[in-house]
Every structure is written in structure tokens, then in C-alpha cells.
Amino acid sequence: MKFRYCTAVLAVVHLAGGVSDAAAQEVLPEIVVSAPSPIAQRTGAQNAPAWNPGTLPVLEYVFAPVTVVPQDEIRRTSASTIGDLLANYPGINTTSFVPNIASRPIIRGLDNYRVRVQENGISAMDVSAFGEDHAVPINPLVANQIEVIRGPATLRYGSGAIGGVVEVDTGRIISSPFKGINVDVRGSLSSVDQGAQGATVLRAGNGQYAVFFDAFGRVSQDYNTPLGRQLNTFQRTNGQSIGASTFGQNGYVGFNVAYTESLYGIPGDEAAERTRIALQQLKFTTKGEYRPDNGYFDAIRFWFGAADYKHDEIHDDPTPVIGSTFMNREQEARVEFQLMPWKSALGPAQSAIGFQFGNQNLSTAGEAGTLLAPAQTTSFASYVFNEVQLDPLWRFQTAARIEGVHVDGTGALAPAGYVGPPDLSLFSAKRDFVPVSVSAGLLRDLPWQTVGRFTAQYVERAPKAAELFSKGPHDATGTFEIGDPNLRKEAATSFELGWRRAQGALRFDMSVFHTRYNGFIYKRFTGNQCDDDFLSCGAGTELEQIVYSQQNANFTGFESIAQLDVMPLGRGTFGIDGQYDIVRATFSDGTNVPRIPPQRVGAGLFWRDGNWLARTFLLHAFDQDRVSANETPTKGYNLLKAEISYTKTLQGTGGPREITIGLVGNNLLNDDIRNHVAFNKDEVLAPGRDIRFFVNTRF
Questions:
Q1: What is the pTM of this model?
Q2: What is d(CA 468, CA 489) in angstroms, rounded to the nearest whole number?
Q3: What is the sign, positive or negative, of the torsion defined by CA atoms of 493, 495, 501, 507?
Q4: Beta-bridge partners for 439
Q5: What pLDDT band is residue 23 in, cutting at 50, 70 and 90?
Q6: Which DSSP symbol is given to 84?
Q7: Which of 40, 95, 110, 320 could make an S-S bridge to 163, C-beta 3.0–4.6 Å?
Q8: What angle do CA 361, 365, 371 make, to 5 degrees?
């Protein structure tokens, strides 16, 4: 392993040394990111080639490792879920319990309650972390930019971000004044599932007020695999939102109301009964910024969101029956005060103070009614960030957060061996936690226009209601889940080294990290099988028993991505891409943490000019045979992708101003791909060869 790390580092050093001075002077426009820190980046602090489709965006002066997926990349990918869109980036995978439908992002082997998925700064407010079959009600069709913070982002967003954050900027709340009317129309067709999807986005403003509207939809059939159709993988999804903003001399305030509904099938064993999920969410969000004209505050920002979420799990018995219902009502608020720059003893400094409140009411009914009785979680937190320019080459950041979490629900104690009799012993339970987190980071300008990064963090996470109080069947995932009401806080001590280059012919970003978890909470397969009640456990045949357990664990990994403009070719540029990622996770007794993604390596070629982009990329995933008890190994695969697109800016008025058309090929080798981290990987194959045609038009 050390040999592989050293080889990758030496290769990048060699390439960096070979970059010409002319290429190194290339000036690229900024990508503005919002997720990593409450201290807004200053002009010139981040340079990334947002204007040039197909160019790798790398952010120089951020303390956290951040992957940015710009708008043009999202449009060309035409992915149907956030998880599928991100799945092949270094350090990022997806749960893919239902590929193309229910696919939640996994970051560095961490998923569910350790990865926060949010939209415009507010949590997704769904139940996707509760079960792998539950979809995230945020559609890439309406996303403008996606930011992924790899590593703990707990300091700003709370316990649910101990593994990372996926921030989806949909632009549904307009934050900058403009005049005129903009309309975007997007659509694509896919061959693997006979799918069609499209969206319309309208923005209108007069400089003082602005309005926003969008509508999207997707329809697809059961998708094809190399072994035939994967039954019960159909999807019907649509959504709409409307909002408005008002602007003043010192800031803005805006709001949005969004509605999403979806009907999709659950493959695997549940396909026989045509099990499907009917999802609905109504969500209200508002945010704003005020820039007071005084000597204390640079900016005051706020976010608020509230959502009412519900989904029914339906199966044919033989006529349609609602088996289980999941409900979530949630509110979240955050306010941040960014102070004016000030002079510290170490150098020029900036600071920000924030406060966050959250309330969640989560419950299940029907066949899953015993899985989780109504549970309420209330939290309040405060945090502070400080950034100091130590000298022209060094930057320093510190942050701290303290959080109070109260969880109220119904606990259950199981007999030894988790088999009956006796039955589960139920009782009313209340738990209080006070997670405390601190971090420090350094950035250093290095030769070859590179930036080095070091961060150290100690972060804590409070157990979620489902981890504490689950106690029943979840038919869609084929599991019988038992929580532990005595779980303690999960704590992680993390160290990370990073090296990146944002400008010039060679652009790259790489990180090596190590995290030690004290009391890592995970789903442990006991080997027992159950039916619909606990007394059947040990003698049942329908459901695999899972127990939320706690054990110390170590995660170590390396990830890198690079792009090199090799030479001019015709009117454009020819170049190569490459990436590599690995994470090794073991418990303190030397056994393997379950469901850890395999080692992956990839390389590709591209050519681009002002209008055309053509590229191909081959990603190889190695066999994953480092498995835990009651877990099966997974064979590796080769994923070949290719795309070609053409963008044209049009002249005149009254018609399209810009149009992009293209073809994207995925899994072109039609390889048998099973996702090791998916609970149903032995029953469900990833989609086979797919050709997508897309059109994006701006008026």
C-alpha cells in the first residue's frame, strides 16, 4: 500500500515539474462554494475553470477537501439521482439499493446518519438515512451546482455530518438581483430503461424583485442488465416549486415552496410482490443575508426550512395493500454572523459565529408500525470559525461547536442472542447528549503553484432515533432491525494531509486521511432470520436480523484526481484524466467493518474546444474480499463511459440563446456490476449498457 501511495505522489510531482510557464499563467474564473465554511471566500481565493466544460474544478484555499460538480457537468451527466451522479468520483460511492432511484451518497465508506444531504443549506428532511430503499427527494434536473465535503463537516452542520456533506444548490431562492427573464429547458432519453426526463426552470427579475418557478419529471421502465431485466425498477417522479426574492441596498430575503412525489419499485426479493414506494414531500425554505453598514458585522445570514414527508410501501397481496408508512415532520433554522476583518496577534483574521436549531418528529405505521414508534429529536447548537492569514504563505483555521440533543421515544431490550422467547421488553425512553467538536487546519502555498493542507479534528455524534429505538420489520429492505437504547456518543479523531493544484495545464487534488472512531455505530448482521415479529426471530425465514451495535474502528484511506492538458490538437486541447481511491476500515479487534467500498482506479482521454467536448473514461473496481461476518465478497468490475456534446451560443432575440446536445454512454462494456455496499447486491445488478441523448436549451 505504501508503494502505491508513493508512486502516485511521485507521478504528480514529475508532471507538475513538466508544466510550461505559459500554461501555468492561465487565469481561470471563480467557482463560489458555500458549504465548507461560514466565512465567505474573498475574490481571488478560489480559482476553478467553471467556464470550460470538461475541465477539472479544483479549489485552492479551502481547508476541507471539496469536490465541486458544476452546472455543465450535471447537465451532461443526465443522472436521475444525486447518488448516481456522484458515485464515481474519488472517495464517493452510493448505496444503490434501487439504482437510478434510491441511491444515497456514501463518503469514504460512511453513509446514512454520517452523511448529510442538503439543499440550499437546509437538510433534505426525508427518511433516506433510515432505510437504503428510501429515495432522496432532491432531483439533479434542478441542480445548479453540487459540493461534496469529504471528511467531517460536523463543525458547521451538526452530528449528521460527521462523515461529510452533500450540498445541492438548486438556485430556487434567488440571491442576486438581475433584470430580465431566463428560461432553461432540459431533457434526456435513456436506452437502458426506456426512460425520459425533463425540466423547465424560469427566473424573472426587475432588479428589486425576482420570481422563480421550476417543474421536472422522470418516467422509466424496468432497466436492462447483462443478465436480463431487473424486475420492479420502474420510476414515476415529478415535482414543482415556486419562490420569490426581494433585494435591498444591504441584502436580500427569499423563499421557496417545493412539492415532490415519486412512485418506484423495489427490486430483488420484493419484486415478486411488486413492492413499491409512493413518496410525497412538501417543503418550505427561506434564507437571506443582511450586510449592515457598521464596524462590527460583515454579514448576517439566516436559513429556515420546514417539511412534511410521507411515503407508503405498497405490495400486491394479490391486490394493492399499503404495508408500511414512514412519516417525518422536520424544521431547521440556522443564523450566522460574519464579523468584519480584524487584526489578531497572529495576523489579519476573520471570524464567524453561528447558531442552529432542529426538530424532527419521525414515526412508522402499518406493518412497520413496530419498527419505530413516534420519536422526537430536538437539538440546539452554537459554533465559531476563525481564519487567520499568518503570512503570505500560511493560512490557519480553527473551529469549535457544542450541541445539545434530546431524543424521546420508545426503547426495547432484547434477550440474549436476540431470539425469543421472551418478547422484547418495551419502555418509554429519553436520552440527552452533548456532542462537542473542535478542529484546526493549515494551508501552505508550495512550489509549482500548489497548496498543501493539514487538518486535525475531534468530532462527536449523537445517536439517531432509529439507532436507539428501532425494533421491528422493514419489509422493503428485507431486514428486522433492533436498536440499542443505551448507545453512547460516537467520537472520531481525524487527521488529513492534502495537496492540490488549481491552475495551469496540470490540475490535481489528493488527500490521505486517518480517522479513529470511539464507539462506531453500525448495522450488524446477527445471522438470525425473522418474520414479522420478534418472537419469530431464530425460526423465521423472511427477514435478515440487524442489530445496531457499537465498536471502536479505524478508517484509513487515500484519494486523488488529476487532469493534464497534454497538447493543442486542432482548434482544441487534448488531455488525460486519472483518479484513484481506497479506504481500509477495521474494528479494534482486527475484523473488517461491513460494507466498505472497493479500491478503484481509473483513467481516460478527452478533447475539447469552445464548442465540442469528447471524452472517454474507464474505471476499474477491484474485488472486495475484506468482508465482515455474515457478509459475502464482491467481484470487481470495469465501468467504461464515453460522451460527446456540442454547445452553441445563438444570436438574435426571441429564441434560444444557447443550446447543448450530446450523447452519453454508460457501462459500455455491459459488465456485470454489483455494488458491494448495497444490502441487496447479491440480488440486484447495476444497469447494463446505456446510451443517453440529452438537450439543454437556454432562452
A1: 0.91
A2: 11
A3: negative
A4: 399, 457
A5: very low
A6: H
A7: 110
A8: 80
